[in-house]
Design brief:
alpha/beta; Rossmann fold; 7-stranded mixed beta sheet; 7 strands; globular
Length: 208
């Protein structure tokens, strides 16, 4: 595993404290509803500090892999018992270390905003999903309001510094729709930032 930078260590140390209020009021209830749909062999990309761990059902019979690019985040997840829930790996979302059609479920929550090669990551998710697999997703996206979208674009270079590369202005939902189709989609707005969440299925007949 690579040696972590001090911004990575600092971000992991403070992440849970900085997001506690939003988790309690907004994110955790959505995580719980999403994870009710997890089934079969599961890959979670961007496990972070393990925020989804409490919501995995005990009845899931397949194997589970948890991947993150940040070693400090992985260490935080280990403290929450992630190792008992499945196998923990350090790796890149844009170059997943798995064969084609390996998983029934891929879980991605608040991750694609921070991935460097994010469209490559979306293609990789589709590649490792089985034809009848599903993507469980929650992500903030670019606003459809032109004024707010412009503000997101202006703020992103500054916001990326303390937030480990998070982009406020990515049209992640539209890019996902090149490779997936929604079967369940909900949305909400938090501090003028739109979020989407739900279940997506891989489109067939597309190049890898």
């Amino acid at each position: 595993m690579s040696h972590p930078s001090w911004p990575d260590r600092l971000f992991a140390q403070w992440y849970d404290r900085l997001t506690r209020s939003m988790e309690q009021t907004t994110f955790s209830p959505i995580r719980e509803r999403l994870m009710e749909n997890a089934r079969g062999d599961i890959l979670e990309i961007g496990v972070g500090t393990g925020a989804n761990l409490p919501f995995y059902g005990q009845e899931i019979s397949g194997y589970r892999f948890f991947l993150d690019s940040s070693l400090p985040m992985i260490n935080k997840a280990l403290q929450k018992g992630c190792e008992q829930a499945g196998r923990l790996l350090q790796g890149s979302a844009s170059n997943l270390p798995f064969d084609d059609q390996t998983f029934d479920t891929v879980v991605v929550t608040l991750v694609l905003c921070s991935v460097g090669e994010w469209e490559s990551a979306i293609r990789e998710i589709r590649r490792v999903l089985r034809p009848d697999g599903q993507l469980l997703l929650m992500e903030h996206v670019r606003s459809q309001n032109p004024l707010i979208a412009s503000l997101q674009h202006v703020l992103t270079p500054l916001w990326k510094i303390p937030s480990r590369g998070c982009h406020l202005d990515r049209p992640t939902d539209r890019t996902l729709e090149k490779y997936f189709r929604w079967v369940s989609r909900e949305s909400f707005v938090l501090s003028q930032t739109p979020f989407v969440w739900g279940i997506l299925l891989p489109k067939s007949g597309l190049p890898k």
